[in-house]
Amino acid sequence: MTGGDRGVLDWFAAHTDGRPVTAIPCDLDPDWILAYLKDLGNRTDTLEVLRPGGFDGYSDFPTYGVRAGRTLEPRDVSMNRVERISEVVTAFESFLRDRPELAGTKLQLSQPHPLDLAMFVHAGGAVATGLPVGLALRRSNLALTAVRNLPVFTEAVLEEMREVRRRHGDLIVWQVETPISLLSMVKAQQLGALWALAPVVAGQLAGFLEKVHEVDREHGIETETIVHLCYGDYQHESLLAPKNLAPAVALLGRTGRRLAERGVPVPRVHIPCAYGAHPAPVDPAFYAPLRELGPEWRVIAGVVSTDDPDRSAQALSLFEQARGTTAYGVAAACGFGRNKAEEAEQGAATIASLVRAPEGSRG
């Protein structure tokens, strides 16, 4: 998608189908964290390249380590997006002035989960080969480095979020994006270890969401957060293929309980059903685990394919039947940022048609 920040905002506004919207997204990096990973190669005081990468697929991502004798600090791994976010906010404020009918609409921005940042920075190779868990994790020095340094990444992210809130208040809604959390659950399912890994990964996700909530409360803000799950979508390839939605349900069930215990609001959540170049399945068994997901979760169904509206409608119908209620929202598996313009147009048209369709007639 092109046209600068204002062009992106105008595109989304033009595709709302006249329906009320609560937030409009504007990607800071259409390739998610690619620009960040490239920029880390310039931070040579503390970081060193253990394995170079040209980003020709997941297996070609670089791996960074900490130089001998140096201590990793939050500034070493900061995404350094504060000024860039201010530029987007300026464009968004101008956009709102020109569209008074959208008064009160928020700006939705991507916020990668610190766990994902740590894993892609320190253990890109481990991510590309399918995520080590359990005993394999203990034998993976790269993954262990990522886990040890996770608190540093978390503080770097929170420092940036605090500054953004200080400058821009409640104008922004954060979308916390974490393929690693969901992929860990898929891997655990493959190994028959969901019961063991779900509490750990859910605890990390809930802990970060709790910290985000604390940052907002420091600034007197009660803005909702969105959680975006996915299976990876670089070059339209997924890192792992799910058998069904049990991994997502296991992750969210544990996360929801932890948030409830801490008095933190349960966010809206995007659950992907399509993955990579594969459309959402049309097998009812794939969606059956949704019956176990608590009603506190307002679920956005990631079922839309850009080239098959009929299949998208069938997938949404199966999703809602398993869930036992209408989906809170309808979306693609991983947004439209990496799609061609005509593909994004088709995907947006499919979403609009599904949202318009009467309940019970979606496939």
Structural features:
48% helix; alpha/beta; 363 residues; two-stranded antiparallel sheet
Walk me through what this model shows.
The protein has 363 residues and is of the alpha/beta class. The chain is 48% helix and 12% strand. It contains 14 helices and 9 strands. Helix 4 packs across helix 8. The protein starts with a helix and ends in a 7-residue tail after the last helix.
Note the topology.
Layout: H1 4-14, E1 23-25, H2 34-40, E2 47-51, E3 63-66, H3 74-77, H4 82-98, E4 106-112, H5 114-122, H6 124-128, H7 135-138, H8 141-168, E5 172-177, H9 179-190, H10 194-218, E6 226-228, H11 246-262, E7 268-272, H12 284-287, E8 299-304, H13 309-323, E9 329-332, H14 341-356
Parallel strand pairs: 1-4, 4-5, 5-6, 6-7, 7-8, 8-9
Antiparallel strand pairs: 2-3
Brief account:
This protein has helices at 4-14, 34-40, 74-77, 82-98, 114-122, 124-128, 135-138, 141-168, 179-190, 194-218, 246-262, 284-287, 309-323, 341-356, and strands spanning 23-25, 47-51, 63-66, 106-112, 172-177, 226-228, 268-272, 299-304, 329-332. With 363 residues, the chain is of the alpha/beta class. The chain has a 7-stranded parallel β-sheet with strand order 1-4-5-6-7-8-9.
